[in-house]
Amino acid sequence: MIRDIISNEEVKEFFRNELKLKKDSGTYLFYGSDMSLLMEFALHFAKGLCCETLEGDFCGECNICKRIDKMLYSDLEILDNPDGLKVDEIRELAYKSSSSSYEGNRKIFIIKDISKMKKEASNALLKLIEEPNKGSFFILLNTNLNILPTIKSRSILVKVKKRTAEELEVDNYTYTFFRGNSEDIEKYKLLDIDLESGYSYQEIGKAIKGYEETKELEYKINIYKALRDFINNREYLKLHEKIFFAEEIVRATSDRNIYREIVSYIVDIMGYLNGLEERLTMKSMLRFPINMKIFFINLFLEL
């Protein structure tokens, strides 16, 4: 039920009020820095729209609620392209939106990371949400509001704040280590890993390869530890050692999502230092086809 959701009382109240309106279509933009939490709240709202037991709420126990939780509900579609949805994917989405519901209920379309879409795809999405088909609900997810203004103006904005360390029942070090990412923290709580044990920056390539192959949290933790080790020792490292660190990252992977994760982590843990705005600008450069080896060398030399 809505009352059982942890954190974000304002969003919970919005859910209650919005579900009371019994709309036959709608477009919502959930935004906040924790994408996993945005997804969690999107699924909660989807359950509220489709629950077969409760009206204006969700039970969490009916067949529909359980299938939405497992993302197996026929009238729920989640669109997630790490490189940004393409215009053909939006056209396919428009076709599905105009088609009949599989289960005679509302159709829910959750679209992740809409800021990654190129202009053509964004314009196609805009046309779709301007006049949504009856029974279609679009829940757009993004970590910020840097999106096409016309998409923003045609969406109901819902800000989802990160859960606090207290709400996640962890200490401040753990919370900061994971940057408040609720999904990672919940997974970590099931593991027996010491976050304060050492991991050399020289081993970052090994950690990246392990994470790319398995997506296991243990390797992600080691990436974070390697970044922290480099930052803590950066003043004592020689030029060739900093260049080696950049080369190790680029040798280990060509996945720009991993590059973004590395840059985001560095920006977050060094946010208290001067020059943050410049590093944020460097982060935005990852959207363009730049030479990543040169990018990381420049970044690490400036830290």
TrEMBL record:
<dbReference type="InterPro" id="IPR027417">
    <property type="entry name" value="P-loop_NTPase"/>
</dbReference>
<dbReference type="InterPro" id="IPR050238">
    <property type="entry name" value="DNA_Rep/Repair_Clamp_Loader"/>
</dbReference>
<dbReference type="Pfam" id="PF13177">
    <property type="entry name" value="DNA_pol3_delta2"/>
</dbReference>
<dbReference type="GO" id="GO:0006261">
    <property type="term" value="P:DNA-templated DNA replication"/>
</dbReference>
<protein>
    <submittedName>
        <fullName>ATPase</fullName>
    </submittedName>
</protein>
